[in-house]
Write a structure and sequence with these properties.
Largest sheet: none
Strand content: under 5%
Order of helices and strands: HHHHH
Helix content: 55-70%
Shape: globular
Radius of gyration: 20 Å
Structural class: mainly alpha
Number of strands: 0
Number of domains: 1
Length: about 130
């Protein structure tokens, strides 16, 4: 029986996708940037929700879900004393500051998260512009 090139490539693809490689699984360690952005997203989501900005809160909730999924199996606890944001101007300022934190994380990360951090920074900057 002769093996065709297509059959060989399909077999190699099946083996690669089945995880039959020598590369060990690498669990993500708790990353300081991921943790900081997660805590910031939680705080901003809560503030946006309390002020009636449900679309912005939904964006932050999506970021929270992504960041929590990346940090598994590590669990980042809620902060006990999150800063209170009383009005739209304070929320816009908090979004702008949080955008700067995410932008800095994007530029200085040593991990593979630069694109994610950049997207979060852009989203937060857009939120600040919309609210202001």
């Amino acid at each position: 029986m002769f093996t065709t090139r297509r059959g060989l490539l399909v077999g190699a693809a099946v083996l690669a996708t089945a995880g039959c490689t020598d590369t060990p699984v690498k669990l993500i360690e708790s990353d300081a940037d991921l943790t900081a952005l997660l805590r910031g997203a939680r705080s901003l989501a809560s503030a946006a929700e309390s002020l009636g900005y449900t679309d912005i809160a939904a964006d932050h909730t999506a970021h929270i879900e992504t960041l929590e999924r990346l940090l598994l199996p590590n669990v980042v606890e809620e902060e006990e004393a999150a800063p209170s944001i009383a009005d739209a101007a304070a929320l816009a300022e908090a979004e702008s500051e949080a955008s700067g934190v995410a932008r800095e994380a994007c530029l200085t990360t040593t991990g593979d998260y630069a694109v994610l951090f950049g997207e979060i920074a852009a989203s937060r900057a857009a939120h600040a512009a919309v609210i202001a």
